[in-house]
Amino acid sequence: MAFQYFVPHYLSAAIYQNALNWTIIIGIFTLVVGIGSLISLHYDKIARRKEHWPYSVVTMVALALMTVIGLWSPDAIQNPRGLFMHLYFFVLAPVTATMFALLAFFIASAAYRAFRARTVLATLLLLSAVIVMLGRVPIGEYMTGWLPEGLRFSDIARFILDYPNTAAKRAIYIGVGLGVAATSLKIILGVERTWLGGGQ
Amino acid sequence: MAKSSFWQKVIDIDRRWIYLVIGIVTFVPILKYIGMPVAVTSEVKAVYDMIESLPPGSIVMVPMEFDPATAAELEPMSRAVLRHCFSRNLKVISTAFMIDGVVLIERDLREIAAEYGKEYGQDYVYLGYKPYMQIVLLNMGENFRKPFPRDYYGARLDELPMMFGVNNYSNISCIVNINATSGADYWINYASGRYGAKLALGVTAVMATDYYAFLQSGQIFGLIGGLKGAAEYEKLIGRNKDVANRSMDAVSVAHVFIILFIVIGNIAFFVTGRQKRL
Amino acid sequence: MQEVTFGTVLWMTSAAFLTICIFSFLYRDNPLYRFAEHLVVGVSAGYWIAILYHTSLTDLWIEPLGASISAFGQPGGSFVAKFGALVLNILPGLIGLLMFSRFFAKTSWISRWPIAFYLGVSAGVALPLFLQSFVVRQVAANMVNPADIFGTMAADLTILFNYGNSTLLFWQGFGELIIVVGCICGLAYFYFSAEHKGIMGGAAKVGIWILMIGFGATFGYTVMSRISLLIGRFNYLISWVSAIGDFLRI
Amino acid sequence: MVRTPKKRLPHLFLSTFLLFSVSIAQENIAIDKPDSAFQFRYEMLAPAPGPPGDIAAKDFPNDPGEAVLVTWSNAPGDNDVFHTVDAYLIYRSDNPDSGFVLLSRIPGGSNSYSDSDTSLVNGHQYYYKVASRYAQDTLFSAVSGAATPSAQLFHTQRVVVLALMLAFSGFALFFIFHAKRGKTMYVRPIAGINAVDEAIGRATEMGRPILFVPGLGDPSQVATIAAFTVLARVARRVAEYQTRIIVPNYDPVVMAICQEVVKEAYTAEGRADAYNERDVYFVTQDQFPYTASVNGTMLRERPATNFYMGKFYAESLILSETGFVAGSIQIAGTDELVQIPFFVAACDYTLMGEELYAASAYLSQEPQQLGTIKAQDIGKLIAIALMVIGAIVYLFSPQAGAMLSAFVQGG
Fold first, then answer.
1. What interface predicted TM-score (ipTM) does this complex get?
2. Are residues B67 and B167 in the same domain?
3. What are the extents of the domains in chain D?
4. 3-state secondary structure of C196
5. Is residue B128 part of a domain?
6. pLDDT tens across B98-148, in order?
7. Of B63, C153, C250, D54, which shows the fewest CB atoms inside 10 Å?
8. Residues B201 and B264 in one domain
9. Residue D38 neighbours by CB under 8 Å, 6+ apart
10. Of A32, A132, A176, which is closest to C216 when you measure between CB atoms?
């Protein structure tokens, strides 16, 4: 597959497409195995009346309901007025969005705890975070609007984002790219066998 | 000694007080609109200028990839861009490559088109969702009809008057991709890189740092980042009271409080003599 | 505006209730959160089964498979080609079915085969792609003209000394310099097969400083996103309250 | 007093253009779009309409053979000042004299079109002409020469990547076999690796389980593969100390592999009977429901140590703050750039980017793993060398430097 990248010929494109499709199909079969594991876990909890087992009943019922509705009607995932999409919009979506929104609180408490000027490194982290925060909101303009251009929070924030940030990114990207290449190579050569459970 | 124990308490403060403060300072400004000035940045202005410079009737592609979880940041932005396009009598083609957002985006498009009295098929087209977006993007470079023989509502593209003679990216004046996912990379690599389409991105504030590099290298001509970018765009099209501008107050106040927390934390840290390891 | 029906209000109330359930987690783990958590795991797993079934399995496997079977009934075309197409369409399903061997402890080793295929293809795709966009592109971006950088900086300084005002181009040149030097130092930090001392140590130290500044910037920039999400939820709760108000008035 | 921010000319930005090309910069500064009030007078100055010139058609390079690239030079009045050309109309025929069919209408300002109509036949000859459409007139260009779409066998702009891939593979193989023959290789100790064993010891003392979160990646991603290696090590220790390990999964394939890894580790320690497959389980393939569930697990099972290894996205901080509240020691490792800062802020140890891969090699202590670390380091040296060479070439000749940089960049 690696060489496909260099060969734009249509035959090569077709092979590529087929192989990708296959991985997706295999992925779906594996999902069934995953669901099996989920059911077995919760069944076990219910059967043994483990702590909090009634909640497992909630999971099982929700799973069964959603699967049945989803597979029953052919247009379940297209009809915005159907029960399936309603469950999606008013059960799944709000929980998803709210979990995400919890970050607003966590980011504040993490900043409070972690951003202490303990060492040079911690101080750099702290300063650049504070400057960028101020540089991105209107209130930063209030505070430094009287300064000449180039010295305002927004300008310094921009400088940090454009230059040191880019430098850091490039360094990590190059490292990651090489790492990915090395690991892919090991898999292709059959050297990397961790996924077989570490056995040789 | 008394002082030191006060600061010690500050350091050991229950995190839930912090949560409470953040909750309050975010909630209150939503109810009471102050209206902080929003400075327009060059990368947002570039998108506005591009759309402003297009002659009426040009086709702009506004692919939108976000789901309910990221809609809070990207929906105001897409609404502002769509309003701008429709108000300038430009035609819009839209897609959605995030399956969770397909219905959401359809609603946005329909509502805003209705605001400007635009007709489906004549003034805008919604192609909807197809899996494997990288392949779809490549195919769209050849012909929209290849991945999307029919639009979202099941009509054949050839039946839509707006799509006559519109085959691929070269018929599009510019693309403003509003994206909450790393799919933005595909737009850069394929639509802009391979097929040379003029591309601007609207992304979440988190992603924006990543995409500044592409702005510098000229692979995208503009960048709208997060709610702040949306607020700037709203300001440019003269809609200062829309949701992004209204939210900027809360965003500002919350930032100030987080910085206050950091400052207080540091004062406490130094007063208590740095003994505390965290 | 959308008309407010009893159904809408009911659904919106469920969403608002779940929103509050999740927020209650901030106080501590409690039955409300546990309920929402378990509910959503079930709903989400079911959702994905349906979505993948409708979008991927039918399009990619069941329909092509059906087509290649029915092709035998139609005239024209060589038997070999038809049979080849059929085999090509059956194979991925067979490989996928091997995964089911995991359900039985004795045969579970068979499932390594599909996993191996999966990894092999993915690795092959990833190798050149990552070298291209993560290594080659980044290196190319770092190949800049040092004369330009220093020239810009020098020109700006000359203006500053002669006329007393700066064009700020000095900082731009300086920034470009930071990118190149910072990137090289960052790579030095990630150089694992040598000890960090001497030049290497110095470079690595500068590298980690640059990394930290970059991380701080990312953290700072992210705050806005997260606050926006919270605002989004609050807006939802407000719209829920007003929807109830509208409904009661009607 | 409210200070309204002045309209600022973004200095830093504008000057970027100045740096790289004087001509581009001139266009940007000198030619401002005329105000609409002046538009009318402005257009009176526009040159007389004319057809597009220099029309050429050729096979689209580096493609699977389905497209023709048509290029032309802009018709009079189609420039940054006037914009009098509404559109270009593209026509095609398989006969140079007749039978031209309208293919497409593309906006003014462009000067190329890639015709990839599905009706194009590989190896067949096609002719093109382009018309410029003005408000009143439509003017046709001459007919292009014949173009024949065909497929290429090698993507010419990807030479550098291929060279790098082959060279890199060579180095990796060299070091792997070198290592296999027993030559030891130095890998610098990484902070956080030693913490792994410490943290497992702590869990044993407290009699509490260990939580290992393999992230949201799919099994082909290197971060996830590195996570497997770390998991193998952790699971062996867990089996040895007889504590419990909990692995909630997002991806079903990852789950299958994690089960194999943990089972293998227990077997290797001779405690296959103690392995509980239900502790390595699948949650759901949906980011935040998964996070919600792992959060709940953290507060209910109260693990002594949390490992976060692999690909993480927005959930990184949700998990690690909750873990902090639960009082667990936390060790994170990810190559997802945006999330590293949050792990750094909330966890006790963080393996940043490539450190995660190195750590997994270090923990495994297998020669082939260490060998590839060495190859990666050589790759970094090549990268640095390329940058330096680029700078030197630039110093001698800016044109050559620009060409080199563009060559490396490829397409």
1. 0.86
2. yes
3. 25-140, 156-183+369-409, 193-365
4. coil
5. yes
6. 877 887 898 889 999 999 999 999 999 999 887 777 778 888 887 888 888
7. C250
8. no
9. none
10. A132
**Chain A residues 48-77 with a CB less than 8 Å from chain C:** 52, 55-56, 58-67, 69-71, 74, 76-77
Pairing of strands D305-311, D210-215: parallel
Nearest to C238 by CA among C29, C76, C75, C16: C16
Separation between Cα atoms, residue B139 and residue B154, nearest integer Å: 19
Q: Are B129 and B260 part of one and the same domain? A: no
Predicted TM-score of the model (pTM) = 0.81
Domain assignment present for residue B276? The answer is no
* Integer Cα distance of C113 and C110 in angstroms: 6
Phi, psi (deg, nearest 5) at residue D93: -155, 160
Q: Where are the alpha helices (H) located in chain B, listed in sequence order? A: 2-11, 15-31, 42-53, 68-87, 102-115, 133-142, 184-186, 205-216, 226-236, 243-271
B277 within domain boundaries: no
Specify whether the CB–CB gap between D317 and D220 falls below 8 A: no
Task: Give all strands of the β-sheet with D349-352 in edge-to-edge order.
Answer: D280-282, D245-249, D210-215, D305-311, D329-334, D349-352
Say which residue the tokens 């943290």 belong to: D199
CATH class of D25-140: mainly beta
Instruction: Say whether both B145 and B262 belong to one domain.
Output: no
3-state helix/strand/coil string of A173-195: HHHHHHHHHHHHHHHHHCCCCHH
What value does the mean pLDDT take over residues B196-222? 84
Whether the pLDDT of residue D53 is over 80: the answer is no
Per the structure, the complete domain to which residue B257 belongs is given by: 2-33+249-271
Residues B29 and B121 both lie in one domain: no
- The answer to whether the CB atoms of A138 and B69 lie below 8 A apart is no
CATH of the domain at B186: 3.40.50
Q: Quote the CA–CA distance of C25 and C33 in Å, as a whole number.
A: 6
Beta strands D68-73 and D112-115: pairing type?
antiparallel
Closest residue on chain B to D34 (Cα): B53
- Tell whether B258 and B182 lie within a shared domain: no
Classify burial at D134, counting beta carbons within 10 Å of its beta carbon; exposed 0-12, middle 13-18, buried 19 or more.
buried
User: Domain segments of chain C: what residues?
Assistant: 144-250
pLDDT surpasses 80 at D208: yes
CA B158, CA B166: separation in Å to the nearest integer? 10
User: Model confidence at B241, in pLDDT bands (50, 70, 90)?
Assistant: confident
Query: CB neighbours of D88 closer than 8 A, spacing ≥ 6?
Result: D52, D72, D75, D105, D106, D107, D108, D110, D113, D130, D131, D132, D133
Neighbours of B145 (CB within 10 A): 19
Q: Examine the domain organization and report whether B174 and B265 are in the same domain.
A: no
Residue with the two structure tokens 């927390």:
B261
φ/ψ (deg, to 5) at C56:
-100, -50
Kind of pairing between the strands at D112-115 and B222-225 = unpaired
CB contact under 8 A, D5 and A182: no
D185 touches chain C (CB under 8 A): yes
Count of the separate structural domains present in chain B: 2
Give the residue from B255, B269, B271 with the most A CB atoms within 10 Å of its CB, the best one to mutate: B255
Measured between CA atoms, how close is B21 to chain D, in angstroms?
17
* B37 exposure class (CB count in 10 Å sphere: 0-12, 13-18, 19+): middle
- At the second CATH level, the architecture of D193-365 is 3-Layer(aba) Sandwich (3.40)
Residue D379's identity, in one-letter code, is G
Do B101 and B226 reside in the same domain of the chain? yes
Partner A, chain D 372-411, Cβ-Cβ below 8 Å = 372-373, 375-376, 379-380, 383
Q: pLDDT tens across D335-350, in order?
A: 888 899 999 999 999 9
Closest in C60, C208, C214 to A165, CB measured = C214
Q: Which chains touch B (3 or more CB pairs under 8 A)?
A: A, C, D
